[in-house]
Amino acid sequence: MGWMTILVGPTASGKTSLVRLLAQLTGHRLRVLGMNSAMDTMELLGGFEQLDILRPWQQVLESVDYIVAMITRNGLMSLDVGLQDTEFLLQKWGVFSQWLRDKGLQKTGAMINSEALDKLEVIILLLQKLNSKLKVFTDMSKLQKDFTLLKERLAQQDDGWTNGGFEWLDSMLVQALQAGDWLLMDNVNFCSASVLDRLNALLEPNGSLTISERGVIDGETPHIRPHPNFRLFLTMNPAHGELSRAMRNRGIEMYIPGEHEGICWDTLDLKTLLHTAGVTGDCVCDLLIDIHKDIKSAIWDSPSSSLASLLHAAALLTCQLQRGLDLPSALQRACGEAYSSCQRTTASQKQAQLVIEQHLSILDTEDWGNGLLCAGVWPDGLPSALLSTEDSCFSSVLRDGQVLLFCLNSLSLQGNRNRPLVLKDLQRALQSSGVLEDLVFPEAVVAPEDKDALRLVPTAVRLVTERASHGDWILRTNWLSHLVKSHKYAPDTALVHMEAGNSALSAVFGSKLSTKGKSLTALLQPQSSDEFRVMWDMRWNKQYLDILASKCNFENEEQYVEFLESMNAVANRTVLKMDREERAVLCSHALNMAAPSSALRTATAFRKGAVDISQLPHPVLMHLLTFFDLWDAFVLQAVQTEGPHVSDAILFEVRTFS
Length: 658
Description:
- By secondary structure, the protein is of the alpha/beta class.
- 55% of the residues lie in helices and 6% in strands.
- The chain has a five-stranded parallel β-sheet, with helices on both faces. A two-stranded antiparallel sheet has the order 3-4. A two-stranded antiparallel sheet has the order 6-7.
- α22 (512-522) runs antiparallel to α24.
- It is globular and about 115 Å long.
- The two termini are 51 Å apart.
């Protein structure tokens, strides 16, 4: 609908970061306009400035740089369609950028000449050619228009026609309106209400922006209608004033609570933020969080009680460590600067310093540093927003595999390992002059809860295999194979479970059940070929399934329910087949590891002729393997045939008692 969004909340509640993240995940260009009390309509809409050849030159360079990045990303992901052209474009753009730096044409006061325009025109022609092949941008006419204007300005400058002239410059708001970018007005309540009221007409349904300050052009006052992709976001802290009622009635207002309003931050989210700031390890994150909480509770008027202070301490700690300081000294300096030096009184400074020293005394204990491992944070963290944007397929695999990675790392602590997982391992890796892959680290002190990781491995593997889609299952099998090779010191049981999951994925997506499930899901999106969101069990992505179903024209509710039952029945059969394939690998491994006198080993030896019938402890062992073979064939036939529906209740009963 394109409604304006007003984000209201206290300082450091994440309003601006939320909009930045949303723009990054959706692939939109975000422009940020910082508001202040001195802003007038000229800054909001635009104004007349003296002619400057560098101004349109910089604008064209910024546009070309943005379009090169977008087309390059799509060209590299398209593989065979435009891969060679994309590589050629990257090479030309790199040579041109280096030439600009050598000539100093990116600096203020540089002299633009025809040679620079000729080189830039070659890049623009390559962009237009590749864009027509990849269809990234539907319209590049604005870039061509700006470049034509730039050439005209250069010709006028050479003839001396631009001396003392003025031109109209569009504001950031007008540029975003025309280009279809997102605009964030930060601290919008700092601006005068009379200035903001100029936007009221724009925010009406089918509204437009009238720029009467520009004058009359061809007998008409300029009117600008927003691009369909344009979105406007406002952020404000109600402690510094309110917006006018007319402005608030034209948008959707969302309140973002702060940490002083009874909101408890999730510990994992805090550790993820600290890890993003460069802090390594669970125990270091816990130490910083405890210092932050204790100072916040001990000093009621502390200016360092917000989350921004915690992130500031993390950034300082990272900088100190990068400069070569040891961890205790770096923690002392970072926490002292972030929490002690900023206090208002000397007594508060001493109290904050005392809290810091009490917490840092834990560094002298022998076991501190063994708890670096943290699920979803270190050493294998959740995929970032940038990775999710650039490679959503691989980031979804990493996200589904976080539990499995944590289990493998926890198991690696119980024996030899080839990855540094504790503080002593990191110190040894930094002091070693050899290759890190050749280092083998000894067993560390393991917490009691880490010893239960082996029991979680089968479930963790299932999270990777059962959330597979028709587009990423090969990537998941390759990733599981990579884990088996990279965690060669892990227990054999864990490695076998990963091999079993790998084998089950390959068997399921190579069977007729996968084709049947894919054909049913294709009925929901006949015009789309997106296989990455089409899971073989769409119940893992129920929201997307509901979206697809809402777009289909089912005759009645009964037809929709019947269709869902058919999809679930195929999914349940696929689950049973996956269980069968996993058990086949697990049983084969168990048979090899079984005692020589076990029933299965004895029955196998009898079938191979190594044991005579007179040596069998019981005659039933003659038919034991035959019985299992017949039962396996029966289960396989029951799963793959178009028989009666396998309901969720039947699936639960089979998986519970099998």
